[in-house]
Amino acid sequence: xxxxxxxxxxxxxxxxxxxxxxxxxxxxxxxxxxxxxxxxxxxxxxxxxxxxxxxxxxxxxxxxxxxxxxxxxxxxxxxxxxxxxxxxxxxxxxxxxxxxxxxxxxxxxxxxxxxxxxxxxxxxxxxxxxxxxxxxxxxxxxxxxxxxxxxxxxxxxxxxxxxxxxxxxxxxxxxxxxxxxxxxxxxxxxxxxxxxxxxxxxxxxxxxxxxxxxxxxxxxxxxxxxxxxxxxxxxxxxxxxxxxxxxxxxxxxxxxxxxxxxxxxxxxxxxxxxxxxxxxxxxxxxxxxxxx
Length: 292
Ligand SMILES: [Zn+2]
Fold this sequence. Notes:
Layout: H1 4-17, E1 23-28, E2 49-55, E3 58-63, E4 72-77, E5 82-87, E6 102-108, E7 113-118, E8 126-130, H2 137-140, H3 153-160, H4 167-172, H5 182-191, H6 205-226, H7 231-241, E9 260-264, E10 267-271, H8 273-276, H9 285-291
Antiparallel strand pairs: 1-6, 2-3, 3-4, 4-8, 5-7, 6-7, 9-10
């Protein structure tokens, strides 16, 4: 799933390629992709793309100037298996519903544009056409942006205080902090040398400061690595840049211990026992429950 650094890089990529161009047409391959019905997609035709921004993991294309009547925001959430594919020359044939991974297409005045694709059978990719990004429920309820200047150590301390939940769950909850998902929460906790099961309420002031530094540097490094990359190269960059996420069975680049995996909520997390849990592997609760 694309998280804050990848969505940030996609926004920068689109600012370079799409901003300043008028929209020729927008097409959804299925009803399920478009989560709003008024205004219709045809309202985008002729609007010039302005800035392209990011809210958490949402991409936000401002279409038409704000002073102009009919200015809209095309908001995209790529979900777990979605991706954006830029095409210098889009096919002229209309998008047809079917089994192809194509979910949505935006065509620009010069014949270029992008496809949104989604692999797999679970279709979660979402497109919204709204007057104000805050109309998108997932944006209205987003927690603070961890790259913003007001995300200070004190702000993080207030977020963690009194929360009797595991830090892994806190970090990837979009209502608590925006933009961090399953991959970067693993990376942040590895950088902070902390157990993913540590309770948020148990953090000392020193630990809050360590976690804060890990969040900011992990995201900033990933954003810097992704900067300037084309949409097509971002996925590979994310994979090679990760140190623990998705690396179960491989040696930790810091200490050489073998990276482990344990189930967490609806997925799995990866961590290094030596770096993060005092050398002790975490018990897989789901597995032990099944064995009882
Ligand atoms: Zn390690």
